[in-house]
Amino acid sequence: MSVQFNTQNIRRRDVLALAGTGVVAVSSIGLFAGDAMADPAAVAKAIKDRIGGKKSMAGNITLELPQIAENGNTVPIAVEVESPMSSSDYVKAVHIYAEGNPAPDVATFRFTPDSGRARVSTRMRMIKSQNIVAVAEMSNGKVHMVKNAVKVTIGGCGG
């Protein structure tokens, strides 16, 4: 059994309208298929991908965040790492991760001994209440990590 279509009565305008509708439908599937969010496992994987098998330790790193952020659009964050910042002992990089945003990686800040101080402050967008993780890579190969929770009352990514 074969199906035959009469294409003589189809206008070019109708074909373009149908094609446009199909493109919109297909592209919106990715927008509403589900909330793909980072989670603690995604953050752990991102950290492992960044630092390899090095063990992280607590201490020498301070993460300043509000306990409650009234608006997730602009949450202030500051990270400071205790270090002499000498040519033989300095902070190479600080990486910031979020356990509840669409992607676990938030930012990476690089330092040299000429930086003088390993401190950075910025603002970040948070979609919901979550843990923020800061990881400091030192020039001697050590890795320091800290994690703090932030409660977001109004989501910053459309929530």
How would you describe this structure to a colleague?
The chain is an alpha+beta fold and 159 residues long. It has a single domain (40-152), classed as Immunoglobulin-like (Sandwich). The chain is 21% helix and 35% strand. The chain is built from two helices and nine strands; from the N terminus they run ααβββββββββ.
Could you provide a short overview of the structure?
The protein has helices spanning 12-32, 40-51, and strands spanning 56-57, 61-64, 68-69, 75-81, 91-98, 105-110, 118-124, 130-138, 143-152. It is of the alpha+beta class.
Could you outline the blueprint of secondary structure elements for this entry?
Elements lengths: L11 H21 L7 H12 L4 E2 L3 E4 L3 E2 L5 E7 L9 E8 L6 E6 L7 E7 L5 E9 L4 E10 L7
Parallel strand pairs: 1-9, 3-9
Antiparallel strand pairs: 2-4, 4-7, 5-6, 5-8, 8-9
Runs in which pLDDT lies below 50 for 5 or more consecutive residues are 23-34
Oligomerization category of the chains in this entry? single chain
By DSSP, the count of extended strands is 9
At CATH's second level, what is the architecture? Sandwich
> CATH class, please?
Mainly Beta
Q: So what's the overall shape?
A: elongated
Mean pLDDT: 84
Class by SSE composition: alpha+beta
Question: Key features?
Answer:
about 160 residues; alpha+beta; Immunoglobulin-like; 6-stranded mixed beta sheet; 3-stranded antiparallel beta sheet; 2 helices; elongated
